[in-house]
Amino acid sequence: MPLTAIFGGTFNPFHIGHYEMLRALENDSSIEKIFIMPDRIPPHKVCDKMAEDDTRIKMCQIVSEDFSKAEVCLIEFEREGKSYSFDTVTELKKRYPDREFTFVCGGDMLVYFDKWYRYEELMKIIPFTVFKRSDTDISEFNECIRRFSGLGMKITVKDEIIPAVSSTEIRNNFTKARSLLPERVYKFLSGRGDYGD
Q1: How far apart, in whole angstroms, are the C-alpha atoms of residue 80 and residue 197?
Q2: pTM of the model
Q3: Tens digit of each residue's pLDDT (9 = 90 or more) over 67-110
Q4: Which residues neighbour 136 within 8 Å (Cβ) at sequence distance 6 or greater?
Q5: DSSP assignment of 119-139, as one string?
Q6: Residue 123, burial from CB neighbour count under 10 angstroms (0-12, 13-18, 19+)
Q7: Per-residue pLDDT of the chain (197 residues; tens, 9 = 90+)
Q8: What is the C-alpha to C-alpha distance for residues 136 and 73, in angstroms, rounded to an integer?
Q9: Which of these, 126, 165, 158, lies nearest to 141 by C-alpha position?
């Protein structure tokens, strides 16, 4: 059965690393739909500068227009509290019982997956699609794959290597960040002052 990819994140801002992951998912014949899912309150991050929710959602909407399989899903804005992936996946499976899902994440997230809320249950209820970044420590990455696979996680590792982009660096020096952002996202953010530019 074709998969619906859950592509979540803070997207603060939506940068080229995110964009290249979307491109790879778009070109994957096993995936029929991509839910771009901005989180309302990121559970694992304390951000120096957090753009307004409407701004982050708008960036996701802008980018979704470039991909025929992508649509923005705001399910995490429908509830209070932190945006835990376990709660989101559980709700999506209830809401779309006829869909098969895969949870998308970067290798940098996989390294501390065992710190996620109810991670042992999460990896039993949904398969994962994982990307390596250009700065990935391959030995550490492979060890994570081995360990979590041994615990029951079903993992597909994508062939594409994603550019390592620091959202913090973009936020701290937006005027030099043009090459790190999709062109239409850069144009949307320019002059708005979301990141102090």
Answers
A1: 31
A2: 0.94
A3: 999 999 999 999 888 889 999 999 999 999 999 999 999 988 88
A4: 107, 108, 161, 164
A5: HHHHHHHS-EEEEEETT--HH
A6: buried
A7: 799 999 999 999 999 999 999 999 999 999 999 999 999 887 765 666 889 999 999 999 999 999 999 999 999 999 888 889 999 999 999 999 999 999 999 988 888 899 999 999 999 999 999 999 999 999 999 999 999 999 999 999 999 999 999 999 999 999 888 999 999 999 999 988 888 76
A8: 29
A9: 158
Taking the C-alpha atoms of residue 52 and residue 65, their distance in angstroms, rounded to an integer, is: 21
Instruction: Compute how many other C-beta atoms are within 10 angstroms of the C-beta atom of residue 4.
Output: 20
Rounded to whole angstroms, the Cα distance separating 162 from 165 reads 9
The domains found in the chain, sorted by start residue, are 3-189 (3.40.50.620)
CB 99 within 8 A of CB 55: no
Q: What residues does 34 pair with on adjacent strands?
A: 5, 70
Strand partners, 38: 9
CA distances from 86 to 110, 122, 194 (A): 15, 5, 30
